[in-house]
Amino acid sequence: MVNLKRILFPTDFSECAEAAAVYASDLASRYDAELQVLHVIHDVSLDVPDFGMGLAFPGYLENLPQRRKEISSAVKQSLELLISQFPEGLKAVDSHMKFGNPISEILEFVETQDIDLIVMGTHGRTGFSHAILGSVAERVLRHAQCPVLTIRGDQTDGTTPDKNTDDVTSD
């Protein structure tokens, strides 16, 4: 039988993530697992070299700490609201917020926090938008050191998965 102790639910607070939250909380309940909720704030200032742009946009670099603080506060409130909507009785639900590249931060979290399963939403982009925007879920799926369950938001009705399905077994 599959032994899940720690489930990671990375969220971007989108409708797709909401659909995945149902599955993440249901699996945490079924397996009496801890649910770790993670939001990564994509810190563009870490990805883009300065090239003197701070000089071109006066005040940009000076205001960055204040903007980070404001964003952090808003994200913390969103995480608290999200967690308050999970059903009661879950073993443990912890929230985490990080600044950085979402893919790198999710993969690092999995490794450092001994995660057994990732449950995440995917937008299901194809074609041009996929080529330009890429897919965090796809890259996490390719590089994660644990199983990844992806939920397409447009293919779910938001209800809880069937409680009568058999547990997944492993030979």
Automatic annotation (TrEMBL):
Organism from which the protein derives: Thalassoglobus polymorphus
Region (Disordered): 152-171
Pfam families from the UniProt entry: Usp
Domain of life: Bacteria
PANTHER family: SENSOR PROTEIN KDPD-RELATED, STRESS RESPONSE PROTEIN NHAX
All residue ranges annotated as the UspA domain in the record: 5-152
Listed SUPFAM superfamilies: Adenine nucleotide alpha hydrolases-like (SSF52402)
Similarity field: Belongs to the universal stress protein A family.
The name this protein goes by in its record: Universal stress protein
InterPro entries, A to Z: Rossmann-like_a/b/a_fold, Universal_stress_UspA, UspA
